[in-house]
Amino acid sequence: MADLNVKINNLRLKNPVMTASGTFGYGLEFADLVPLDGIGGIIVKGTTLHPREGNDYPRMAETAQGMLNCVGLQNKGVDYFVKNIYPQIKDIDTNMIVNVSGSSPADYAECARRIDALDRIPAIEVNISCPNVKDGGMAFGVTCEGASSVVRAVRAAYHKTMIVKLSPNVTDVSSIAKACEAEGADAVSLINTLMGMAIDIEHRCPKLSIRTGGLSGPAVKPVAVRMVYDVAHAVNIPVVGLGGIMTAEDAIEFFMAGATAIEVGTANFIDPTATIKIRDGISTWLDRHGCKSLSEIIGVVR
Amino acid sequence: MKKYLLDLTVVSNERLSDRHILLKLTSPAALPEMIPGQFVEVRIDHSPSTFLRRPISINYVDRSRNELWLLVALVGDGTRTLAGLGSGDVVNCLLPLGNGFTLPSSSDESLLLVGGGVGIAPLLFFGREAKDRGARVSFLLGARTASELLELDLFKNLGNVYVTTEDGSAGERGFVTNHSVLSREVFTRISMCGPTPMMKAVAAYARKTGTACEASLENMMACGLGACLCCVEKTTEGNLRVCQDGPVFDIQKLLW
């Protein structure tokens, strides 16, 4: 059996498969169906300093090999998370990671500070790339200055592993990744969803309530692999790859492009056990190719 | 209620109308516990244009035959792919999902189950379970035309059946809310499933008459497990997930 352990800064993962924020709830929703401790990390739903109702329905449209969503960070706020959700998830035997979002660098930092105090949350993923909120979100992730301002503020408030989730809706994702690295990010994850739109031609209106949404699923995978490849060559911190991963073979592409770990998102909707199947498939692939550890294939494509 | 991911086998696939099929599924093991109003997320294989699972309400559970029935309206490529399934084919199902209807707590109850179009589907299972609990059950079923009134004989085995069709080809002409039974009889509770305009009209009737009333919603879903927050409905408690907090909601909670 090949060694699937990987490290992201001080964060040890028993395998490189994590869940993408917003696609796996708090893990509990999948507990009947998936052995949660078999997943390398569970990145829970985006959390903000204050509660958010999210956008109006409809929030989702199915597209060719993918889907658009404009959920808009609906969550009950970090204090609710700390008081009501954390006690339910803290004993799950894997890395429980909180995805943090905000509308100002100070918001992000305060939210991160409150999570810093939680013993069993070893890392956060800072979301500077949500395309579905008016204030903040992706606005920070599309310029180096915006990204720097958030990462700097969070770094001052948060002392454990900080992963910064990047937007693909930019001209040069590498420069943003470098800006995050310069401000002390421990890793970057990419890609968040691609901005898209779908139209109901019978009613002559957008299918989503706020007109646009984020595209995910296999349709975005080649874009994601390219961006992971670019960023992995531009920074010296670990890169977490995501975007349309449905199978172990998809995941291997991301490792070869330079990802140290991967996140499985939309696939959870089609197969709630996708994470475990992908983990096992990676192991089988490595064995079949005579690899003793996953590290042998990370970034092999030059 | 524990959720399962199961490969179920098609027993039969019957065409009930131009636009509806009845898919009967079974399993070598006993089917899981399910309650009326819950639904199944069905994976659609071999349909290139279908990406997500399709949420389909539980039409009936026949315990003696270990069968799960899904009554499916053929609306797009995904559901039309289901129409092509034959006996022995395998369907991957995530179930049971959602909360279900309020079951009668005493035999004094007189329930009116209102269904429109394919929204009649969950009422058959509900009617069976309610009748087994000793409640008096009546069905008020609406369709566009007589040929789209489905499973009528099965409903008639469980209670009084009142029918409306939009073209007058069966029962009273018009919508369910026009049916004369509503002015003749009194019910302790109304449970309904169907098009939103129908349910809003029935909800207005329930409010006017002070009748307890619940509605099963069918907002577009992705995960079916309460994780993605795509299927939310605005309620008195904020945006709630139809897949997990519903699909059945007391109308007092809805902003209708």
From TrEMBL, chain A:
Organism, scientific name: Prevotella lacticifex
Metabolic or biological pathway: Pyrimidine metabolism; UMP biosynthesis via de novo pathway
SUPFAM superfamilies: FMN-linked oxidoreductases
Swiss-Prot/TrEMBL cofactor(s): FMN
Protein's name according to its UniProt entry: Dihydroorotate dehydrogenase
Co-factor binding comment: Binds 1 FMN per subunit.
Active-site residues, Swiss-Prot/TrEMBL: C130
Keywords of the record: Cytoplasm, Flavoprotein, FMN, Oxidoreductase, Pyrimidine biosynthesis
Domain Dihydroorotate dehydrogenase catalytic: 4-284
GO MF entries: dihydroorotate dehydrogenase activity
Alphabetized NCBIfam families for the sequence: PRK07259.1 (NF005574), pyrD_sub1_fam (TIGR01037)
Functional note: Catalyzes the conversion of dihydroorotate to orotate.
Protein family per UniProt: Belongs to the dihydroorotate dehydrogenase family. Type 1 subfamily.
PANTHER family referenced in this protein's UniProt entry, alphabetically: DIHYDROOROTATE DEHYDROGENASE (FUMARATE), DIHYDROOROTATE DEHYDROGENASE (QUINONE), MITOCHONDRIAL-RELATED
GO biological process terms, semicolon-separated: 'de novo' pyrimidine nucleobase biosynthetic process; 'de novo' UMP biosynthetic process
The protein's Enzyme Commission number: 1.3.-.-
Binding site for FMN: S21, K45, G46, N99, N127, K165, I191, G217, G243, G244, G265, T266
Gene3D superfamilies named among the record's database cross-references: Aldolase class I (3.20.20.70)
Gene Ontology cellular component list: cytoplasm
Top-rank lineage group of the source organism: Bacteria
Reactions catalysed, as given in the entry: (S)-dihydroorotate + A = orotate + AH2
EC class of the enzyme, as a word: oxidoreductase
Protein's cellular compartments: Cytoplasm
Residues holding substrate: K45, N69, C70, V71, G72, L73, N127, N192, T193
UniProtKB/TrEMBL annotation, chain B:
UniProt GO molecular function: 2 iron, 2 sulfur cluster binding; electron transfer activity; flavin adenine dinucleotide binding; metal ion binding; oxidoreductase activity
CDD domains assigned to the protein according to its UniProt record, in alphabetical order: DHOD_e_trans
Needed co-factor(s): [2Fe-2S] cluster; FAD
SUPFAM superfamilies reported in the protein's UniProt record: Ferredoxin reductase-like, C-terminal NADP-linked domain, Riboflavin synthase domain-like
Keywords, in A-Z order: 2Fe-2S, Electron transport, FAD, Flavoprotein, Iron, Iron-sulfur, Metal-binding, Pyrimidine biosynthesis, Transport
InterPro entries: Cyt_c3_hydrogenase_gsu (IPR012165), Dihydroorotate_DH_ele_sf (IPR037117), Dihydroorotate_DH_Fe-S-bd (IPR019480), Dihydroorotate_DHASE_ETsu (IPR023455), FAD-bd_FR_type (IPR017927), FNR_nucleotide-bd (IPR039261), OxRdtase_FAD/NAD-bd (IPR001433), PyrK_electron_transfer (IPR050353)
Single Gene Ontology BP annotation: 'de novo' UMP biosynthetic process
Residue ranges occupied by any FAD-binding FR-type domain in the UniProt entry: 3-103
Positions that bind FAD: R54, P55, I56, S57, G78, T79
Chain positions recorded as [2Fe-2S] cluster binding sites: C223, C228, C231, C243
Metal-binding in keyword set: yes
Family: Belongs to the PyrK family.
Subunit structure: Heterotetramer of 2 PyrK and 2 PyrD type B subunits.
PANTHER family cross-referenced by the UniProt entry: DIHYDROOROTATE DEHYDROGENASE B (NAD(+)), ELECTRON TRANSFER SUBUNIT, DIHYDROOROTATE DEHYDROGENASE B (NAD(+)), ELECTRON TRANSFER SUBUNIT-RELATED
Function of the protein: Responsible for channeling the electrons from the oxidation of dihydroorotate from the FMN redox center in the PyrD type B subunit to the ultimate electron acceptor NAD(+).
Name this protein carries in UniProt: Dihydroorotate dehydrogenase B (NAD(+)), electron transfer subunit
Gene: pyrK
